Task: inverse folding
């Protein structure tokens, strides 16, 4: 066993909360889950229908390692229609969730000792994956007071020649913030390889949907079906890469995964045909849930000092209540049966924060926030 590597890998602290919650549930306690970043709405009927058809037709074998051609063509079409970016299906490789897309992108860009910059607060996997592939993690911090926008002047000063890759996540988990056009355009002039994790792309409310590809055609984009189409268990994502990289990544895919799940690829062809009205209604509903979350937190004295413009997280500063949000999250779970995600998962600078996920139903969020109010009341009395 590679003890050195395994002992350096951090757990997902939110999983500790979830596992404790499951223990309580087994004993009959009713837990409200606002800790998990997983949409609870059912997948669209067209997704189920195309999946069923693909099983009937026997599309249940290995696909081409790059993915089913029709799906790659439809992804390229989506980029043209929704984002006005021209990409070729030959730049798209379909993967086992965007998690596999991230892994393939990192392996193809970094070698042992290379420095990789991540933006704090960050998706917890990033530093762990960088370590696994022998890279060195460098953390660039963003602040609530700046609306979690990257300070481009500071970033330019921060970067060194040894930094090989920058991982961007916009819209972001855990803040729900999209980087603005100026930031995206600035990044393209830095001369650093960019992996842009856009798994929440399109889940924004008031701004036009963005992709780094509108500014930088050399960037690598990670995207997937888990969040926008609520297809977490179907394990489907994709990479958009410059043409010159596709063969190398294809070889990695052949050796590591063979191909992405074929039935899910066919289901995703259905997902990309979902009616625009259905999407508009989904966004309207998320926006309502976001507003409910922010307003209820503010009513109990937890002010959110920035604007989460995208789904489906609100990141709350809890320094009035704690120095250690893992302890706080466990205490909230113990006392009022509510699951929330400790900020420590998203970087040490945010150990006093907690993340509320509003990906579940309006009613569930109301119940969860009522429990939070009860907890805060107990705290202040
Ligand atoms: C920022 C970000 N990237 C990647 C993933 C992985 O998603 P999946 O592998 O389900 O596509 C997640 C999941 O929560 C995420 O929040």
Result:
């Amino acid at each position: 066993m590679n003890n050195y590597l395994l002992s350096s890998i951090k757990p997902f602290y939110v999983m500790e909360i979830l596992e404790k919650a499951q223990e309580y549930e087994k004993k009959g306690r009713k837990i409200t889950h606002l800790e998990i970043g997983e949409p609870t709405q059912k997948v669209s009927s067209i997704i189920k229908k195309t999946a069923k058809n693909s099983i009937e037709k026997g599309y249940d074998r290995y696909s081409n390692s790059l993915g089913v051609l029709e799906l790659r063509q439809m992804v390229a079409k989506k980029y043209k229609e929704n984002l006005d970016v021209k990409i070729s299906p030959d730049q798209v490789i379909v993967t086992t969730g965007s998690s596999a897309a991230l892994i393939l992108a990192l392996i193809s860009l970094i070698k042992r000792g290379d420095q990789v910059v991540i933006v704090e607060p960050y998706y917890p996997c990033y530093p762990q994956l960088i370590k696994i592939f022998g890279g060195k993690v460098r953390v660039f911090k963003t602040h609530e007071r700046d609306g979690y926008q990257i300070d481009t002047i500071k970033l330019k000063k921060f970067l060194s020649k040894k930094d090989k890759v920058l991982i961007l996540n916009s819209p972001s988990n855990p803040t729900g913030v999209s980087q603005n056009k100026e930031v995206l355009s600035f990044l393209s002039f830095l001369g650093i390889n960019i992996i842009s994790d856009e798994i929440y792309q399109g889940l924004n409310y008031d701004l036009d949907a963005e992709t780094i590809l509108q500014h930088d055609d050399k960037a690598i984009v990670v995207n997937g079906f888990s969040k926008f189409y609520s297809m977490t268990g179907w394990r489907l994502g994709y990479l958009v890469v410059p043409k010159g990289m596709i063969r190398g990544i294809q070889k990695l895919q052949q050796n590591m995964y063979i191909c992405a799940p074929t039935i899910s690829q066919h289901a995703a062809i259905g997902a990309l045909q979902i009616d625009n009205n259905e999407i508009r209604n989904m966004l309207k509903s998320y926006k309502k849930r976001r507003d409910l979350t922010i307003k209820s937190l503010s009513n109990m004295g937890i002010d959110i000092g920035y604007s989460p413009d995208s789904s489906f997280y609100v990141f709350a500063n809890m320094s009035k209540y704690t120095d250690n949000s893992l302890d706080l999250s466990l205490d909230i779970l113990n006392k009022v049966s509510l699951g929330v995600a400790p900020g420590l998962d998203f970087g040490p600078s945010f150990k006093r924060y907690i993340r509320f996920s509003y990906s579940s139903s309006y009613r569930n969020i109301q119940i969860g926030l009522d429990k939070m109010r009860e907890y805060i009341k107990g705290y202040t009395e």
The domain at 3-42+276-380 is CATH 3.90.1150.10 (Aspartate Aminotransferase, domain 1). The mean pLDDT is 95. Residues 185 and 215 are 5 Å apart (CA to CA).
